[in-house]
Write a structure and sequence with these properties.
single chain, eight-stranded antiparallel sheet, 8% helix, globular
Length: 119
């Protein structure tokens, strides 16, 4: 009987589960905003695969480009707020400032992690 080699399968599974960005998972708010009672307009959510908001969630994505701390993601998110939920694709450009903060390069808004905050 030949031995079964599981290492290639384990490596493939771990890369498929890897986060798209080197950020902590959780809810983020615009710097200068309080975590307690944060308005939907200033919150974002990083689930390990994409950056969502109160209007878009369940995001999945992949990195299209990376240069130093700047990332371009192609992500697909469920859009909320209409008569029915649809999945839409978009490119997102962010700069990862630290493991707990990032900048949206489209709007220039700086976000910081709020541990315990739920969207």
């Amino acid at each position: 009987m030949r031995p079964i080699l599981l290492l290639p399968l384990l490596l493939a599974a771990s890369s498929a589960l890897a986060d798209t960005l080197p950020l902590a998972r959780g809810a983020y708010v615009v710097r200068g905003s309080s975590c307690a009672g944060a308005a939907n307009a200033v919150t974002r959510d990083y689930n390990g695969q994409g950056v969502g908001s109160s209007k878009a969630g369940q995001c999945t994505g992949r990195v299209l480009a990376q240069f130093r701390r700047r990332y371009t993601l192609r992500q697909s998110c469920v859009q909320y707020g209409g008569p029915r939920q649809i999945r839409a694709n978009e490119n997102v450009k962010v700069r990862v400032d630290s493991h707990r903060s990032f900048t949206d390069l489209k709007t220039g808004a700086h976000y910081r992690l709020c541990p315990g905050l739920r969207l």
